[in-house]
Design brief:
The chain is mainly α. The chain is 60% helix and 0% strand. The radius of gyration is 15 Å and the shape is elongated. The protein starts with a helix and ends in a 14-residue tail after the last helix.
Length: 70
C-alpha cells in the first residue's frame, strides 16, 4: 500500500500538481510535511520555472511542448 501511495504522489507531482493540493489528497494536515517527504520528486520544477521566466521576458511564447520559442 505504501508503494501505491508513493507512486500516486509521484505521478501527480510529475504532472505538475502542487504540494498544497497533494497534501490535501494524501490527508496530510501540514503541506510542509508533504513537501519534506516528496521534495526529491520535484526536479522538473526547475525546468518549468525556467520556461515560465523565459516566456515572461520575451524569449518567445511557450510552444506546444511548454518551452519558450525564439
Amino acid at each position: 500500500m505504501h508503494v501505491l501511495r508513493h507512486t500516486y504522489a509521484s505521478v501527480l507531482l510529475d504532472a505538475g500538481e502542487n504540494i498544497k493540493a497533494l497534501s490535501l489528497y494524501l490527508g496530510h494536515a501540514d503541506s510542509g510535511f508533504t513537501l519534506r517527504v516528496y521534495t526529491h520528486l520535484l526536479p522538473a520544477s526547475e525546468d518549468r520555472t525556467r520556461r515560465a521566466i523565459d516566456a515572461a521576458f520575451g524569449n518567445g511564447p511557450p510552444g506546444p511542448d511548454g518551452r519558450a520559442t525564439a
